[in-house]
């Protein structure tokens, strides 16, 4: 077997293996890494996943990318250690199920990627004796998943930037109560400001003596593990080779890229439904072919999806023959007809999100939180354009309802049961720093704390 190599979407950096792609995060030409070719799984292998535990599916899907880098027995052990929780597929109606990706330690789907990435990076660092500082911008859930996944991993320090006014108290505590090798900064700005500061730091020669890496969804190490649960769902819902509909509430488009990658690896997808909140740059792009980032991004209820310029669109464009650079300029148009055939996207307002959350509960006893409600509503929008005709469908719920107790109490009249991992937070003291949106101040902070 040939090892999978990774190329930059900007086409100006040398190809690298998984280890280098993981440790670098972003390619030197400011593009994003993508596999040059995708390993293919056979219909029989995918069908066989129906009887396998999640950790074993993860092992089989990820093994081709790790070939020659992590030996199979170690990879199998890393997967078993990372995926020690349930991935329920809750029946709703007909062959439609909601996949709950909220059973990890920080109760959002971001645990799936962060836990695998932490284990990969921890292993690579141990082998090379290096240390690394991970800088990550978060709109709420990435920071906590990354902080939890890397907490206590030797050789790694994590710095999380979060927008002070855009994360819930519980999300904030998940980042600010860990300490040890984890630090966090409350930025007096928006998620996009956090992301911009992090990107600028990566490109800054004055910081070259601090070995930095990113754990944002720009890191390919985030996307590969996010392809696994689509195989898990399909094997359990669809007949061998039968295409299914997948709906993914989207912000930075890392989760949906996991589905696109699964598709390239051989998973039959009838349609990928990618609803967004009021940050509607993607459905507009799909409809018109014109891409305009939204600056500043709009504040919506589904706060982890408040992204006005999703980094991963560069990857999506590249896989459809186009070139979108890091500034959001379309250098070469992707195949719009193919994109429209494969994808459906709608924008869901906060008012619709609330109404959907209430209706799903009243009609199906389906308990959602705002992100999952955007996903569910977008799925219903899609059904208006094309009936399922008994096709299987999976809609993702990306966070635990207990992360949004106030909203759910207001809408449904009860408080969702809190999982033990979240309940413990309320008793822990917080510790974080504050900074204005100012790159100079951020650089000084990095130099003072990490060089
Ligand atoms: C991050 C996040 C999303 C959006 O995922 P992307 O990969 O950024 O599209 C959706 N829901 C929740 C709960 C999240 O934390």
Quick tags:
binds pyridoxal-5'-phosphate, 15 strands, 42% helix, Rossmann fold, six-stranded mixed β-sheet, five-stranded parallel β-sheet, 19 helices
Describe the structure.
The protein is globular. It contains 19 helices and 15 strands. With 451 residues, it is α/β, with parallel strands linked by helices. The protein has a six-stranded mixed β-sheet. It has a five-stranded parallel β-sheet with strand order 8-5-6-7-15, sandwiched between helices. It has a domain at 87-108 and 222-412: Rossmann fold. The longest helix has 19 residues, at 110-128. Helices cover 42% and strands 14% of the residues. Helix 5 (110-128) runs parallel beside helix 6 and helix 15 crosses helix 16. Strand 6, helix 7 (169-176) and strand 7 form a beta-alpha-beta unit. The model has no long low-confidence stretch (mean pLDDT 94). The N and C termini lie far apart (41 Å). It has helices at 18-24, 43-48, 54-66, 72-82, 110-128, 141-150, 169-176, 191-203, 220-223, 228-237, 254-264, 281-288, 313-319, 336-342, 350-364, 370-385, 405-412, 420-423, 439-450, and strands spanning 6-8, 33-35, 89-93, 96-100, 132-137, 156-163, 182-187, 212-214, 244-247, 269-273, 323-324, 330-332, 343-344, 393-397, 433-435. Pyridoxal-5'-phosphate is lined by residues 108, 110, 141, 217, 249-255, 304-305, 371, 398-399.
């Amino acid at each position: 077997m040939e090892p999978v190599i990774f190329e930059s979407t900007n086409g100006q950096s040398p190809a690298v293996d998984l280890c280098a792609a993981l440790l670098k995060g972003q390619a030197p030409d400011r593009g994003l890494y993508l596999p040059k070719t995708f390993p293919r799984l056979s219909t029989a292998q995918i069908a066989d996943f129906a009887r396998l535990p999640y950790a074993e599916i993860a092992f089989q899907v990820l093994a081709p990318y790790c070939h020659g880098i992590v030996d199979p027995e170690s990879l199998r052990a890393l997967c078993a250690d990372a995926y020690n929780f349930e991935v329920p597929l809750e029946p709703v109606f007909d062959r439609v199920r909601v996949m709950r990706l909220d059973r990890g330690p920080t109760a959002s789907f971001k645990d799936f990627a962060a836990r695998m990435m932490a284990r990969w990076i921890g292993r690579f660092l141990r082998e090379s004796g290096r240390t690394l500082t991970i800088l990550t911008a978060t709109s709420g859930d990435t920071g906590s998943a990354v902080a939890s996944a890397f907490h206590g991993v030797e050789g790694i320090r994590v710095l999380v930037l979060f927008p002070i006014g855009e994360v819930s108290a519980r999300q904030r505590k998940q980042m600010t109560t860990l300490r040890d090798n984890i630090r966090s900064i409350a930025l007096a700005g928006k998620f996009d400001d956090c992301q911009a500061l992090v990107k600028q730091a990566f490109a800054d020669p004055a910081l070259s003596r601090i070995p930095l890496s990113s754990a944002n969804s720009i890191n390919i190490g985030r996307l590969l593990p996010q392809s696994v649960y689509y195989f898990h769902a399909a094997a359990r819902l669809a007949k061998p080779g039968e295409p299914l509909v997948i709906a993914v509430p989207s912000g930075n488009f890392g989760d949906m890229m996991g589905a696109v990658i699964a598709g390239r690896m051989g998973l039959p997808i009838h349609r990928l439904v990618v609803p967004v909140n009021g940050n509607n740059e993607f459905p507009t792009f799909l409809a018109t072919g014109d891409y305009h980032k939204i600056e500043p991004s709009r504040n919506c209820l589904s706060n982890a999806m408040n992204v006005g310029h999703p980094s991963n669109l560069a990857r999506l464009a590249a896989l459809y023959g186009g070139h979108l650079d890091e500034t959001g300029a379309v250098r070469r148009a992707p195949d719009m007809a193919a994109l429209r055939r494969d994808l459906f996207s709608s924008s869901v307002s906060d008012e619709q999100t609330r109404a959907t959350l209430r209706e799903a509960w009243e009609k199906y006893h389906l308990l959602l939180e705002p992100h999952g409600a955007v996903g569910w509503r977008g799925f219903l929008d899609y059904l208006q354009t094309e009936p399922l005709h008994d096709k299987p469908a999976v809609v993702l719920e990306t966070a635990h309802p207990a992360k949004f107790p106030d909203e759910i109490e207001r809408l449904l009249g009860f408080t969702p049961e809190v999982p033990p991992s979240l309940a413990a937070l309320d008793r822990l003291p917080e510790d974080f720093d504050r900074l204005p949106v100012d790159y100079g101040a951020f650089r000084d902070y990095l130099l003072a704390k990490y060089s």
